[in-house]
Design goal:
The chain is built from 14 helices and 17 strands. It has 449 residues and is an alpha/beta fold. A hairpin with a 2-residue loop joins strand 15 and strand 16. Helix 1 crosses helix 13, helix 3 packs antiparallel against helix 4 and helix 5 packs across helix 14. The protein is globular and about 65 Å long.
């Protein structure tokens, strides 16, 4: 049952996704009560958006590894919980070799257990935050309003967790989608879609979303042209180098000036993908059957054609492939990364003159918003909008890292009497047990690595 509003709280989260669940779970684990926490957002399911994206992609396992899950501490790891549930050491053995990735169904099941046990929905106000206003009297705090400018609550500390910006299309495809005759044949990897046998499809990009779509098209009996602007990238287990998931690597990254961090992100986030044996086998079979090919180039024109679309491909590095007749085009180009595409952030930036460069807020090293964040009343960001501070900020591990730092800062500012150590251990064991029991009710997901 959602909370009533207007609602005053010690800490609030503007957003109802992964980040909100991790902030809420961490705060409850440390000792905050539900009445002291507010989550603002219309969705009753903190993993609903991701669940839809994963379904649209046909994704079955996470790219993340065993430490990335929704319990506040890392222990027990997800592989250990999975082993406990299945009564098999195989998940732990795979994890020691970095060959274990939580299944989508399993990680969503864990999220449901955490949501229920911690009372996430009892802290949720079912409204989207449209404006956050800094007030300094009688003590520093924030006043929150919905998208219709109605007062919905106050909080001393606020985490901005709005999620991703809108889906991104190359300009040529974005313009072609304005034509109703073409729109249904040009889709984003994260959108719903259906591939047909004997169809011929172009997939843009070479990241994990694009590779998922290669496999989906081949499984449906279609043919794939994998089109990239640059040569295929090297494989990489995680979305950034592994060292950047560790404190030492994050500290080294933060020692760089903002401009160098942004350039570095541009280099390491160029469509990397993990090396998955199941994918490789399907792609190699598709090559043998003449149903998979790769090319370098960009789509420069789109029009209706006998197969559905006729596209022109140019290659600045060599001979142009020219005109091709295809059934459809799938863009694995992800999301628009500019904070200016998110209305709440754009309003804050314009009103409070928050510094922005290259579409990114110049966050402080604690993910605080410059000019608004104070030690005694924090305003922070998490997710993709914080990856110029935490490079893997849009992963479960990165969200958890930011959530822990934020909640710890809030606990210090509020001089929280923390939950006793024995109580925390007992809570964690019981949560792990409940997750293990829930996992027994679903079939295990096949590992792809």
């Amino acid at each position: 049952m959602p909370a009533d509003y207007p609602r005053d709280s010690v800490l609030a989260v503007a957003g109802d996704g992964f980040g909100s669940l991790l902030v809420h779970a961490t705060a409850r684990y440390l000792g905050f009560e539900n009445r002291e926490i507010t989550v603002f957002g219309p969705s009753p399911n903190p993993v609903g958006t991701y669940q839809q994206f994963a379904h649209n992609l046909g994704q079955t396992v996470l790219r993340s590894e065993s430490e990335s899950h929704f319990l506040a501490p890392d222990w027990p790891t997800f592989a250990q919980i999975d082993a406990w549930s299945r009564r098999s050491l195989a998940p732990v053995w795979r994890s020691t070799r970095r060959k274990y990735n939580p299944g989508v169904a399993e990680i969503l099941t864990e999220a449901q257990v955490v949501q229920r046990r911690m009372g996430w929905d009892q802290s949720r106000v079912p409204l989207r935050v449209g404006w956050v206003q800094r007030e300094m009297t009688p003590t520093p705090h924030f006043v929150l309003y919905d998208e219709e400018a109605n007062f919905i609550g106050r909080a001393k500390h606020v985490m901005l967790a709005p999620g991703h910006g809108p889906l991104s299309f190359p300009p040529v495809l974005a313009k072609a989608r304005d034509d109703p005759a073409l729109a249904d044949r040009i889709v984003q990897a994260y959108q719903p879609k259906r591939y047909v046998a004997d169809g011929r499809y172009i997939v843009l990009g070479a990241g994990i979303a694009s590779v998922n779509e290669w496999a989906n098209i081949l499984d449906a009996g279609g043919s794939v042209l994998a089109l990239t602007r640059n040569p295929q990238p090297e494989t990489q287990d995680l979305n950034v180098p592994r060292c950047l998931f560790e404190s030492l690597g994050i500290d080294t990254y933060l020692s760089l000036p903002f401009e160098q961090r942004v350039r570095f992100l541009g280099e390491v986030l160029k469509g990397s993908r993990p090396d998955r044996k199941q994918w490789i086998d399907r792609i190699e079979q598709g090559e043998r059957e003449g149903r998979f090919a790769a090319a370098i180039g960009e789509i420069s024109a789109v029009q209706a054609g006998p197969a559905g679309l006729r596209v022109h491909i140019t290659n600045p590095r060599g001979q142009d492939p020219g005109w091709l007749d295809v059934t459809g085009v799938t863009a694995g180009t992800g999301f628009n990364k500019s904070v200016l595409t998110i209305p709440l952030l754009r309003r804050l930036i314009e009103f409070y003159d928050v510094p922005v460069a290259d579409g990114r807020i110049k966050l402080q090293t604690n993910c605080g918003v410059p000019g608004l964040d104070r030690p005694e009343s924090r305003l922070c960001c998490m997710g993709l909008i914080a990856n110029n501070v935490i490079p893997h900020g849009d992963t479960i591990a990165g969200l958890k890292f930011i959530a822990r730092r934020f909640v710890s800062d809030v606990a210090r500012a509020e001089r929280l009497k923390q939950r006793p150590f024995t109580s925390r251990v007992s809570l964690q064991v019981s949560m792990g047990r409940d997750v293990a029991q829930a996992l027994r009710r679903i079939p295990p997901t096949q590992q792809l690595a």
